[in-house]
Design a protein that fits this description.
The chain has 18 helices and 20 strands. With about 500 residues, it is α/β, with parallel strands linked by helices. The chain folds into four domains: about 190 residues, Nucleoside phosphorylase domain (Rossmann fold), CATH 3.40.50; about 100 residues, 4-hydroxy-3-methylbut-2-enyl diphosphate reductase, catalytic domain (Cobalt-precorrin-4 Transmethylase, domain 1, 3-Layer(aba) Sandwich), CATH 3.40.1010.20; about 80 residues, Rossmann fold (3-Layer(aba) Sandwich), CATH 3.40.50; about 80 residues, 4-hydroxy-3-methylbut-2-enyl diphosphate reductase, catalytic domain (Cobalt-precorrin-4 Transmethylase, domain 1, 3-Layer(aba) Sandwich). The longest helix is centred in the middle third of the chain and has 24 residues. The chain starts with a strand and ends with a helix.
Length: about 500
C-alpha cells in the first residue's frame, strides 16, 4: 500500500466522504478539486506523490438501466478521445455490493458541460453509463497508479438534473458517499506489487469440455430450446451462458415436454431417470463423463455379485445419486470414517469413490473400509479422475508458496471445494465464482497470490482475475506446471448424427 488520495469536486462531497472514513484515517487524504474541467485540471497538475487515486462524487446517468442512488464504478474513463482503464473496478464493485450498495460497472465519460437530451442519448448509444465533469483530467494525471472512479447517481434520463426531487436525491446520494470511505480504504490497502502463481492444470477438464460441446451441438442441430436435466456442469457462468443461447435447465424430467430433446448432465443419472425418459419418448443425449460411466459400470458389477456397494462420496451430489442408483438396493453412501463403523458386518463388501473427491479424504475412508472388511474389493483403478488429482496436486504446489490462494469455481462444484480444502492446509484459501467475489481484505499484505480454477470453471475467469489484480499494482505471473493433460473423449453418436 502506498496511501490513498480521494478527490471530490464539491465541499459537500468531501465532508460526506470524510465522515465515513475510519478514524484515524492514516495514509488517506481527501481533497476538493473544485467543480468542472478547469478546476479539476488545476488539481490534477498538483497531484504529486504515488498514492492510489480514487475520484468520487455525484454523477449523471446516461444508461437507461441506472437509477438515482445507484453507485457506478467506472470500468474506464473516457476523456477527450482517450480511454483510461480502471482494471480493478470489478474488485471494488464486489466489495461495495457486499456493503449493501446497488452497484453497476461501466464506462464513465468526462464532459466539460452538463449533458442533456440528444447528447445523453448519443453517449448511451456509444456504451457509456454515466457522465461527470472532473474525473478525466485526474485519471490522466494518475496514469501508472491504481485508479478508481466512483459516482453516485443523482440524475438520470427519466429524472433529469433540473427537475423536482433533485434536492432529495442529492441528500440521499450524500449519505451513500459516506459509505464509500471504508471500502475505498480497503481497496487502497490491497494495492501494491505482487506475484501471481498460476496452478497448472486448472480450469476445464476433458469431461467438462465434452459436456459443454454436447449442449452446443444439440442447440445447433435441434435448435432451441433443448432441455438439460440439472446443471450440465457445476458452474454458474457456464449455465448462464448456455441458458442465454437456448438451453433450459430443469431439476426433473417431468418439466420437459414430451418428445423434446433432453440432455443428461456430466454427473450422470440413475437408471430410473433413463426409464422415465424412455416412457416420455424424450430424445436423449447423454453427456455423462466417461469416467463417471466407468464408476457406474463398477457399481453394477459389484451389485450383481451380491456385494454391498459402498460409495465414498457426498450426499446430495448428482454423481453420487446416479452411482447409488446403479447399485440399487445394494448401494450405501459413506461420507466419513464413522459411517464405516456403522456398516453391517454380515455381507461381502466393495467400495467405489465419487470422482471429484480430495485424494487424502477418500484414501482415509477407503483404509477404514479395508481395516474393517479385509476382503473388501475396490475399483480396478482409482475412481478419482485424473483431472481432479492433477488440480489438487497443482494447487498444493502453489499454496506452499502463497500468502493467499483463490480458487475459481461455483459453490456447488465438489472438485472446486476440494481444491480449497487442499490449499487451506498451506495458506488461507477462498472459493469465488469470479473476480467480483474476491474480498479486498484477502489481498491486503498478500504479495504472492496463488490462483487456480476447478475443472468446471471457464479459463477466461482466471484471466479476468489477473487483469483485475493488475489494476491494484504491478503483477508478475508465474505458472507452476505439474502435469500436461492430453486426454480427449469422443462425443456420443446422438450429438453427431
Amino acid at each position: 500500500m502506498t496511501g490513498l488520495l480521494i478527490c471530490a469536486a464539491l465541499g459537500v462531497e468531501v465532508r460526506a466522504i470524510r465522515r465515513g472514513l475510519p478514524s484515524p484515517h492514516l495514509g488517506t487524504r481527501v481533497i476538493a478539486t473544485g467543480l468542472g474541467l478547469r478546476r479539476a485540471g488545476r488539481a490534477a497538475a498538483r497531484l504529486g506523490g504515488r498514492e492510489a487515486v480514487a475520484v468520487v462524487g455525484f454523477g449523471g446517468a446516461v444508461h437507461e438501466s441506472l437509477r438515482p442512488g445507484d453507485v457506478l464504478v467506472a470500468s474506464e474513463v473516457r476523456f477527450r478521445g482517450r480511454v483510461h482503464p480502471c482494471p480493478s473496478a470489478p474488485l471494488l464493485a464486489g466489495e461495495l455490493a457486499r456493503a449493501g450498495l446497488p452497484v453497476r460497472v461501466g464506462p464513465l465519460v468526462t464532459s466539460g458541460h452538463v449533458v442533456m437530451g440528444a447528447e445523453r442519448r448519443r453517449l448511451a448509444a456509444e456504451g457509456a453509463y454515466a457522465v461527470d465533469m472532473e474525473t478525466g483530467p485526474l485519471a490522466r494525471a494518475a496514469e501508472g497508479r491504481p485508479l478508481a472512479a466512483v459516482r453516485v447517481i443523482v440524475d438520470t434520463p427519466r429524472a433529469p438534473l433540473l427537475s423536482p426531487g433533485t434536492l432529495a436525491r442529492g441528500m440521499a446520494a450524500r449519505r451513500t458517499l459516506a459509505l464509500l470511505g471504508p471500502v475505498l480504504t480497503r481497496w487502497s490497502a490491497a494495492t501494491g506489487p505482487r506475484t501471481v502463481l498460476l496452478a497448472a492444470p486448472r480450469s476445464f477438464c476433458a469431461g467438462v469440455e465434452r459436456a459443454i460441446e454436447i449442449v452446443e451441438l444439440a442447440l445447433e442441430r435441434y435448435g432451441p430450446p433443448v432441455y438439460v436435466r440439472k446443471q450440465i456442469v457445476h458452474n454458474l457462468h457456464v449455465v448462464e451462458d448456455l441458458n442465454r443461447r437456448g438451453a433450459v435447465f430443469v431439476d426433473e424430467l417431468d418439466e420437459v415436454p414430451a418428445g423434446a430433446v433432453a440432455i443428461f448432465s456430466a454427473h450422470g443419472v440413475a437408471p430410473e431417470v433413463r426409464e422415465e425418459a424412455a416412457r416420455r419418448d424424450l430424445r436423449v443425449v447423454d453427456a455423462t463423463c466417461p469416467l463417471v460411466s466407468k464408476v457406474h459400470a463398477e457399481a453394477r458389477r459389484f451389485a450383481s455379485e451380491g456385494r454391498l456397494v459402498l460409495l465414498i462420496g457426498h450426499a446430495g451430489h448428482e454423481e453420487a445419486e446416479g452411482t447409488l442408483g446403479e447399485a440399487g438396493d445394494s448401494g450405501v453412501l459413506v461420507q466419513t470414517v464413522e459411517d464405516v463403523a456403522a456398516l453391517p458386518p454380515d455381507r461381502p463388501v466393495s467400495y467405489l469413490m465419487q470422482t471429484t473427491l480430495a485424494e487424502d479424504e477418500a484414501a482415509g475412508i477407503a483404509a477404514a473400509i479395508r481395516d474393517r472388511f479385509p476382503e473388501a474389493r475396490g475399483p480396478r483403478r482409482n475412481d478419482i479422475c485424473y483431472a481432479t488429482t492433477n488440480r489438487q496436486q497443482a494447487v498444493r504446489a502453489i499454496a506452499e508458496e502463497s500468502d493467499v490462494v483463490v480458487v475459481v469455481g461455483s459453490a456447488n462444484s465438489s472438485n472446486s471445494q476440494r481444491l480449497v480444502e487442499v490449499a487451506a492446509h498451506h495458506a488461507p484459501a477462498h472459493l469465488v465464482d469470479d473476480r467480483g467475489g474476491i474480498a479486498l481484505d484477502w489481498l491486503a499484505g498478500a504479495r504472492t497470490v496463488g490462483l487456480t480454477a476447478g475443472a468446471s470453471a471457464p479459463p477466461a475467469l482466471v484471466d479476468d482475475i489477473v487483469a483485475a489484480l493488475r489494476g491494484l499494482g504491478e503483477v508478475h505471473v508465474e505458472e507452476r506446471v505439474i502435469a500436461r493433460e492430453t486426454v480427449q473423449f469422443s462425443l456420443p453418436k446422438e450429438a453427431l448424427s
